[in-house]
Amino acid sequence: MKKYTSPSVLTIAGFDGSGGAGIQADIKTFSALGCFATSVLTALPVQNTQGVRKIYSIPEQAVADQIEAILDDIFPAAIKVGMVHTPQLVDTIVNTLSKYAKIPIVFDPVMVATSGHHLIEEETIATLVQKLFPIADVITPNMDEASILANMQVRTLDDMYIAGEKILNMGCKSILLKGGHQETDMITSLYFDKTGKIYTFETEKFKTNNTHGSGCTLSSAIAAYIAQGKDLHDAVSMGQKYVFEAIKSGKDIEIGKGNGPLNHFFNPQKLIIHEMV
């Protein structure tokens, strides 16, 4: 009898009960792109489309146990890491992953929610840079997060070039610096690859409040395309196209009273199945 397998992607991230961001957005994205989704919960934010009300921590040992349970059974082709809000959690994730063969990692340094709420402790940033940056294949900060990482104001495209170079010199392999907060008709994002070459990606900007979870979705889409065997540049490019279409197709749908979610399932793919050799 023939046996088959499917590319699996693991998200290590926080919770969003309103379904637009966090592991919920990640699972929707992986599934919409034809991958099998697994998840590890790092934190329990109490939030909706209007903002974050409170954050409950998950014990570090519980996070380690979750990672081991998944990797011992359903070894992923790629990992997306999202909300990691304490230094102890960074240590736990890095140390636990170090026990296994290297897996491509997309790290979305979630620091500021769409609503403007800060989601990370100040002392965590240095630990992220020291320990998580070196094992991530690409990090995906937005302009607000780049401001925090580069310790400078990032408001324009020129600022993004300067901040991206600064962040690249902190020890990460590559960066996708997202330009979604630009006050322009076209959004320009910059991808700094491991050689230092810079690629620009331009997309149309829509007038919509439905961007809750767009960063989570983009990093997850990149991880899904890596799991499918795409190289990093193509995964970054295809991930941005997916998010563009998800925002475009969901821009007029009203869900919640605040920043609504994307339409992750605007064109869902069937689960990708490969015959096992």
From TrEMBL:
<keyword id="KW-0547">Nucleotide-binding</keyword>
<dbReference type="InterPro" id="IPR029056">
    <property type="entry name" value="Ribokinase-like"/>
</dbReference>
<dbReference type="GO" id="GO:0008972">
    <property type="term" value="F:phosphomethylpyrimidine kinase activity"/>
</dbReference>
<comment type="pathway">
    <text>Cofactor biosynthesis; thiamine diphosphate biosynthesis.</text>
</comment>
<dbReference type="GO" id="GO:0008902">
    <property type="term" value="F:hydroxymethylpyrimidine kinase activity"/>
</dbReference>
<dbReference type="Pfam" id="PF08543">
    <property type="entry name" value="Phos_pyr_kin"/>
</dbReference>
<dbReference type="GO" id="GO:0009228">
    <property type="term" value="P:thiamine biosynthetic process"/>
</dbReference>
<protein>
    <recommendedName>
        <fullName>hydroxymethylpyrimidine kinase</fullName>
        <ecNumber>2.7.1.49</ecNumber>
    </recommendedName>
</protein>
<keyword id="KW-0808">Transferase</keyword>
<dbReference type="InterPro" id="IPR013749">
    <property type="entry name" value="PM/HMP-P_kinase-1"/>
</dbReference>
<dbReference type="GO" id="GO:0005524">
    <property type="term" value="F:ATP binding"/>
</dbReference>
<dbReference type="InterPro" id="IPR004399">
    <property type="entry name" value="HMP/HMP-P_kinase_dom"/>
</dbReference>
<keyword id="KW-0418">Kinase</keyword>
<keyword id="KW-0067">ATP-binding</keyword>
<dbReference type="GO" id="GO:0005829">
    <property type="term" value="C:cytosol"/>
</dbReference>
<feature type="domain" description="Pyridoxamine kinase/Phosphomethylpyrimidine kinase">
    <location>
        <begin position="16"/>
        <end position="263"/>
    </location>
</feature>
